[in-house]
Amino acid sequence: MLWVDKYRPKNLDKVLIHEQTAQNLKKLVTEQDCPHLLFYGPPGSGKKTLIMALLREMFGPSAEKVRVENKGWKVDAGTRTIEIELTTLSSTHHVELNPSDAGFQDRYIVQEIIKEMARNRPIDTKGKRGFKVLVLNEVDKLSKEAQHSLRRTMEKYSSSCRLILCCNSSSKVTEAVRSRCLNVRINAPKNEEIVKVLEFIGKKESLELPPGFAARVAAKSNRSLRRAILLFEACRVQQYPFTNSQVIPPMDWEEYVSEIASDIMKEQSPKSLFQVRGKFYELLVNCIPPEIILKRLLSELLKKLDAELKHEVCHWAAYYEHRMRLGQKAIFHLEVLRLSFVTARFAFLAFFSSYDCPKLNQFHDTSVCSQVYEHLQGFPYCNFWLKLELVFSVYWAPLWKKAIELVCFQMQQPATAEVFRHCSLCFRPFRG
C-alpha cells in the first residue's frame, strides 16, 4: 500500500493539518444539523481526506466498506432515450461519483442519481428514515445546465439526502449552488506543515532523516501534501539511507512535458508536429489533466524563450486554456497552442531578419531607427502606443531611448516621461 493511502487519517481527531477545520466539522456532526457542504481548494490540500473522515464520523466504520460499480441509467430526454454509464463508489450510507465524466450529459446524471437516492432512504436502528450523502467530485467542471439542475434537486430533496461537493476553484461554481452550501476553504498546506507530516511518516516507518531532507522534499512538492508523500516514498525506494546530496526525483510526466518543450523549440516542421501530437496523446492516455499539461508546457517554454516572445505565448496559452474548458477535445487545443507558438516565433524571426544588424544589442545608428519607423508605417491599424511598444521591444539596447525619441519626433508626438513609462510597463512584441 502506498504511504499516501496508508497514513491517510481515518477520523477527524487524527488530522495533522487543518485541525481547526476538522474540529468545526466534528461540531456539525455532533449537532446533527449538517447542511450541504462545498469543499474547495488546490489539488493535494486534503479535501478528500477530510470528506472521508467526515463520513466516518457521521456513519461509523461502515462508511469505509465501499464497492465500485459501473451503473447505467436510461433517461428520457424529450423524444429520445439516453443511456448513460458511470463508475460510482458507494457504501450503505453514501455514493461518490464524478458527473463531469459524462461530458455534456452530466445534467442527466445529477438529476437521476439524486432521485434514486431519495427513493432509497436508509432506516437507522431506531426505525427512523435517515438520509444518504452524495459526494460529487470536480463540480467546477460541470456544465452550467448541470449546475442549474443541481440547484433545483438540492432544494427538492434536501430532506432525504445531503450533498458534499468537491472542487479546486469555487469561482467556477455558480452563485446559486454556492449559496445553498456551507463553503469550506481548504488551503494548501505550508511547507512547515508538510515537513511535520513527513517526519511523522518517517518515524512510523523507522526512517532516519538527515537535517533539512524533509524540507527539501516539501519545497519540491509545490505545497501539495499528496505529491510530497509520493516524492518521499520515491526517495525511499531510490536510495536509503538518505543523504543530503540525494536528488529528489521529478515526476515522470513533468520530464515528458519538458521533452515536448525541447522538441517544439528544436524544430518547427510537420514531422515535429506529428511527434508532439503523439506525446500529447501519451500524456492524456495516462490521465494527466490537459489543463496541467498546458500550464506545465507554458512554464517550460518560458524558460527557453526570448523575452520579446513571452507575453505573446502567455496570451495564447490563456486564450486556449479558456477554449479548452468550453470544448470537449483537449488534444485539439493543445495542438493549436503549439501551432500558435510556431507562428509567433516565425513572425518574430522574420521581423528581425528584415534588418541589417544581426544582433539587437548592436543598434547604435539612427538609420536603424528610421528602418523601424518605415517598417511600422506598413501597419496602418497600429496606434501610436502600439508602435512605441514595438520599437521598445525591438530596440532592447543601450540606445533604445534614442529610437523612441526619433519615432516620437517623426510622428509629431512629445517624448515625455509618460511615454517612456508606458513603454516600460507595456513591453511586449507586436501582434500583427
UniProtKB/TrEMBL annotation:
The keyword Nucleus applies. Keywords: DNA replication, Nucleus. Belongs to the activator 1 small subunits family. GO terms for cellular component: DNA replication factor C complex; nucleus. Residues 33-192 form the AAA+ ATPase domain. Transmembrane segments: none annotated. SMART domains: AAA. Its main location: nucleus. GO terms for biological process: DNA repair; DNA strand elongation involved in DNA replication. May be involved in DNA replication and thus regulate cell proliferation. Heterotetramer of subunits RFC2, RFC3, RFC4 and RFC5 that can form a complex with RFC1. It is found in: Nucleus. GO terms for molecular function: DNA binding; DNA clamp loader activity. This is AAA+ ATPase domain-containing protein. It holds the Pfam family RFC_C. InterPro entries: AAA+_ATPase, DNA_pol3_clamp-load_cplx_C, DNA_Rep/Repair_Clamp_Loader, P-loop_NTPase.
